[in-house]
Amino acid sequence: MATLTVPSAVPPVADDCDQLRKAFQGWGTNEALIISILAHRDAAQRRAIRRAYADTYGEELLRSITDEISGDFERAVILWTLDPAERDAVLANEVARKWHPGSGSRVLVEIACARGPAQLFAVRQAYHERFKRSLEEDVAAHATGDFRKLLVPLISAYRYEGPEVNTKLAHSEAKILHEKIQHKAYGDDEIIRILTTRSKAQLIATFNRYNDEYGHPINKDLKADPKDEFLSTLRAIIRCFCCPDRYFEKVIRLAIAGMGTDENSLTRIITTRAEVDLKLITEAYQKRNSVPLERAVAGDTSGDYERMLLALLGQEQ
Amino acid sequence: MATLTVPSAVPPVADDCDQLRKAFQGWGTNEALIISILAHRDAAQRRAIRRAYADTYGEELLRSITDEISGDFERAVILWTLDPAERDAVLANEVARKWHPGSGSRVLVEIACARGPAQLFAVRQAYHERFKRSLEEDVAAHATGDFRKLLVPLISAYRYEGPEVNTKLAHSEAKILHEKIQHKAYGDDEIIRILTTRSKAQLIATFNRYNDEYGHPINKDLKADPKDEFLSTLRAIIRCFCCPDRYFEKVIRLAIAGMGTDENSLTRIITTRAEVDLKLITEAYQKRNSVPLERAVAGDTSGDYERMLLALLGQEQ
To answer: Which of A59, B27, B44, B90 has the CA that lies 20 to 30 A from A308?
Structure first.
């Protein structure tokens, strides 16, 4: 349920490169041309364009983009143009290096829990290639305390992906989670073990069991202190497994709401989900806010940045 | 530096299957024939034989083997015939399920530290396929205390594999290791973080720095209590990175030495290293014990089991 729109007849890669080169040259940059090409090509097509562009002009496409545009628009075009695994590696590296528990753990949770196990491993491979270190190495070196204890195994996991569920285990681990939460032992080894190693299917069974047994969703019990960043990280993990569309809807909602816009989060969610499930997220947004997401984005952003996001949201130009 | 010997003219796969089938049939089993084929085929050839055998006879080769032979000989043939990643998954599963800190952690340390990062990931994939769970999930569910804290990240790591070394970091992390060891804080988060996330090249630089700075190898400081299983696990990690041949030599030496033989360890090391570096290990053994490893193995084992191990050690039949 992507929002990305790709023309039915995509021009040859050489033509795309040629057009992009023209957009960068001469007085001023043709931003509309950049958007009309890159925001309407899928990951494989963008990869082919990057390769052909470097071969033809002896310069990286991303380098040319960075030289010509700037600010939020630049960040959106760069992040979008990157391969999904490379993009996640870049996002993870940013938050690992400038560690801040709240925003940092949110990005890492999304990468660890809202992508599949194979995709998470591809991110770790891209991280090696780009940064000459491992993702877990950087997170372990910068994050601290309970956040480190939780996030290092979270991003190191290679979870089983099958549908098999052990109902007895769901029962016993729902009980463990409940007991630890009752005692406010949120950073307990057992909570971390369960959340970081069990398969998605098994975890969903455990959370359902929790709901059945204790009369309300586990996330309600994890809201004891709404301002606690660690609790909010635990809730984000659970939501990324159970209802990623509603999780992402909320991140976008908070990015737009109130004074000022959180462009970083807005760009991250739109570029990482446009080819995945952004249609579901826009539906969740409309349902929750009674406003189309496109209108909300248009109201909070402007210029080429706005046009780029709206193109990725699938709005007709 | 493998010991495996493969004939210069390997028979067609169909002939190998045919011969194996004959070895299993009729009164009694032709063990010598099984050894003469399987112990002289490399991983790709064994894989091809398994596939062709299943296609031809509608039964798994490993199943046929299990029906016909038993004991240590069976275990050696089965482990050897498995693909390297699948074999490691089986070994890891055995120790995870019947958890015992000493032997269990040794097997996991070998798989995590004496294989490359890509091979470790292949083991995790094979584990999913075979056991419908993840390796880290089973280790986390069975191991306890400091062992769990150490082994779960150890087997979840995807270490950077490049040669780059940060000398400043080697310096500062050698200091951290030294301080924690001085205070006997062996299970400290920082020791675990360093050992489980840094690349092999970086770790070796750190251990060298430790030696330079404090006048003796880190492993000497980790011998405070020679009977402590956790300390011995830390030393095994360091040795698997720094000198895998000498590490494996010692495991074999201890398996053979004294009253009785530790067949499990002997079989494990010979089957996992015959295609990798068993020649180096036999050289290290000869040097350390003034006896050829083949002679020591022959002295401590017998029958088909002995013949299987000697074949894998490259001894002419």
So the answer is: A59
pLDDT for A317 equals 59
Residue B317 pLDDT more than 80? no
Question: Which of B125, B132, B149 lies nearest to residue A162, judging by beta carbons?
Answer: B132
Which of A130, A154, A197, A200 should one mutate to test binding to chain B, selecting the residue with the greatest count of B CBs within 10 A?
A197
Distance from B31 to chain A by nearest Cα, in Å? 38
pLDDT at residue B280, rounded to an integer: 97
> Is A189 close to B148, i.e. CB distance below 8 A?
yes
CB within 8 Å: A121 and B152: no
DSSP symbol at B187: T
Q: Of the candidates A124, A141, A198, which has its C-beta nearest B137's C-beta? A: A198
Q: In chain A, what are the domains?
A: 13-69 (1.10.220.10), 84-156 (1.10.220.10), 167-242 (1.10.220.10), 245-312 (1.10.220.10)
Cα separation, A296 vs B153, in Å, equals 43
Query: In this complex, which of B134, B149, B156 lies closest to A160 when CB atoms are compared?
Result: B134
Rounded Cα distance between A144 and A99, Å, is 9
Supply the ipTM of this predicted assembly.
0.92
Instruction: Please compute the mean of the pLDDT values over residues A291-315 and round it to a whole number.
Output: 96
The pLDDT value given to residue B209: 98
Distances in Å between the Cα of B200 and the Cα atoms of A137, A157, A302, B240 are 12, 20, 48, 10
Please answer yes or no on whether B137 and A124 come within 8 Å at the CB atom: no
Using CA atoms in the order A90, A93, A98, A104, what is the torsion angle rounded to 10 degrees?
A: 90
This prediction has a pTM of 0.94
User: How close is the nearest chain B Cα to the Cα of A138, in Å?
Assistant: 9
Answer yes or no: are the C-beta atoms of B278 and B3 closer than 8 Å.
Answer: yes
